[in-house]
Amino acid sequence: MDIFIFIVSMGALIYGADFIIEQSEKIALHFDISPFVIGATLVALGTSLPEMAVSMSASLQGSGDIAVANVIGSTIFNISLVLGVVFLMAKNINPTRDLFAKDSSWALFPILIFILMSLDGVLNFVDGLLFLVLMGAYLLFLVQSNQVEQIDDEDEKENFNWTRALIFLSIGFVFVVGGADFAIESAGNIARSFGISEWVIGLFLVAFGTSLPELVVSVKAALKNNADLAIGAIIGSNVANFTMVLGLSAMVNPLNVDLNANFFDIAAAFIVTLMLVFITANKLYNKSAGIALMVVLGLVIQNSL
């Protein structure tokens, strides 16, 4: 039964991703918004809902370590797995936006600020509020940096229907978030049937499961030659994870952070973020970069096991 649920859940993820991408592209076209900005805002915030749900729930229950570990793990998976798979599967990735000049610092700032805020061992209400301010600054930056060539497809613009777009976009997010939730649960049951420990299940399935929406949406976007939306969703999702997810979780309950005990995982998240900056700086949007990211992911998994 769990195998059937897992297959159906993956189907929901895939179809939901199609709805999100299609409607996001229509909104971008209608308002002359670049695909990257749509990916870094609308898509990124939507696909970060699973992380938000898990971390907020953990914080309310006093399990701050789970909330923090979820964000750190999701950052590692979003870059090493999601971006790695995108590079390996997409035939041609050629973003129109200069990601290094405009966006690489936003990929790096949140984790650096997280480390600085965690030096005292706790993320408190004020830290959470500052994270939310950082998210606001990022959104403002995206609005100001939005540059897209005017598209002359006036027929497509005139046929745009807000009601239809919102309905299909909502369906897409429900399918993606709900599919991810059922996929995590069913995969966990399957893993237990094979005798895999609860700790390993919790560590990898939560982080991987909450990254499933980003994975499916980004891969589908890249396969449709929409690299800007795919990479925008990854960068935006990581910013949202550190600012909104951790910020709101810290405002609900203070989050204890042991930098020494979790040094390897936090260092791994920082290293893959540096790799993302290096890739954008040298425009290494190819299979070699994908393989390098997957190797790092393998090392992280091997160390954790």
Describe the protein in words.
This protein is mainly α. The protein has one domain: A middle domain of Talin 1. 81% of the residues lie in helices and 1% in strands. The protein has 12 helices and 2 strands. It is globular, with a radius of gyration of 19 Å. The two termini are 28 Å apart. The mean pLDDT is 82.
Can you summarize this structure?
With 305 residues, the protein is mainly alpha-helical. It has helices at 2-31, 35-47, 49-60, 64-89, 99-117, 125-145, 154-158, 162-193, 198-223, 227-252, 263-282, 287-304, and strands at 122-123, 255-256. Strands 1-2 form a two-stranded antiparallel sheet.
Helix and strand pattern: HHHHHEHHHHHEHH
Instruction: Give the DSSP E fraction (strand runs of 2 or more residues).
Output: under 5%
Q: Which CATH C-level class is it?
A: Mainly Alpha
What composes the largest sheet? 2 strands, antiparallel
Number of domains: 1
Helical fraction equals over 70%
Instruction: Give the low-pLDDT segments.
Output: none
Strand order of the largest sheet: 1-2
Number of β-strand runs? 2
**Can you identify the CATH superfamily?**
NCX, central ion-binding region
- Rg from alpha-carbon coordinates: 19 Å
- Please name the CATH topology: A middle domain of Talin 1
Structural class: mainly alpha
Calculate the terminal CA-CA distance, rounded to whole Å: 28 Å
Label the CATH architecture.
Answer: Up-down Bundle
